[in-house]
Amino acid sequence: MLARITERGLGLLALGLSFGLGLGCSQAKPRTVAERAATGAEGAEPDEPDATPDPDPASLVAIHLSFDDAPGAGFAPGARPEQAASYNELNVEILATLAAHHAPASVFYNCDKLLEGDTSLAAWAAAGMEIGNHTASHANLAEVGLEPWLDDVRRCDAVLRERLDEPPAYLRYPYLSEGDTPELRDSAKAALADMGYQNAHVTVATTEWLLATAYSVVKQRGDAEAEAEIVAAYRKHMLDAVRAARELAIHEVERETSQIVLFHVNRLAADHLDEVLDDFEAAGYHFVTLDEALADPVFELPDKFAGTSGISWLARIHDPERERPPYWFGIEEGRLTEAYGALLEGD
Ligand SMILES: [Zn+2]
Description:
GO terms for molecular function: hydrolase activity, acting on carbon-nitrogen (but not peptide) bonds; metal ion binding. The chain contains 13 helices and seven strands. Helix 7 (182-194) links the parallel strand 4 and strand 5. With 347 residues, the chain is α/β, with parallel strands linked by helices. Mean pLDDT is 85; it is low at 1-55. Helix content is 49%, strand content 9%. The longest helix has 30 residues, at 224-253. The chain has a single domain (60-344), classed as Glycoside hydrolase/deacetylase (TIM Barrel), CATH 3.20.20. The strands form two sheets. Strands 1, 2, 3, 6 and 7 form a five-stranded parallel sheet that branches. Zinc ion binds at residues 68-69, 134, 138, 174.
């Protein structure tokens, strides 16, 4: 676990540096939503005197909730079959919270983790949620190369086709790693399109998996105070992540876009997704399906990024010739690793 965190952390910190973190370069401050509201939204017709001003720009923000690493994050392939029951529970609890908030969602499976006795896949299907492919073994495209990676996609595809009434239509790249060269990126994209897959982009990159690991540690210890602190950090992290993504959207395309938020199927979400969704609702956000979110034309823009780091779609469309503000995700991951890294190392 530590190796993974260190590797990811360093990669993202390096990415943050390449985006101008800590280098003291001048940073264009993105226009805030309030400033935009004051100057008028781009979509408003100037010659339409009766156009009602938008009372709350946040209400325009459509949010899609997506959950990776099903049936459970950190769930090793080859786990004992009796563990299926506890993972079934995780998924059922998350689904109950989503139902209580009338929130459509998508879930992305690592098919190697499907144990005998798994009922989670059927539960997501019965709830009418979008079920996608996240590769069989969570392979990193940039590390394993095109053909082995496509084999991993195909293995999961075969399982999902066999178990679901509808063939899967979406793929979420593990680690959001879409290839470290333009050639690899474009070849993978073309092969996925041939298989009938659409990329389930993420616009709101998060590091909640790190908090979820820390949460499991303190929960096991019975440290209620530390647990409450992590839950508060989780709620703040998820709200800040959406806010940062909205600012990035305004910087890149000068308007609000739909936002696709990355969660993972973990105990932290099963226990506290309810509060996060309360916070989203209080911020004025509304929940939409993956189809609805991906209908935003922002997803038609050219991908300008090839690298080893997993970054959000709104960072991928950035023209490297233009300046941009520091990438929030890189800073946040560094901050959370500093705050909770020791817990993850078992100190
Ligand atoms: Zn994943």
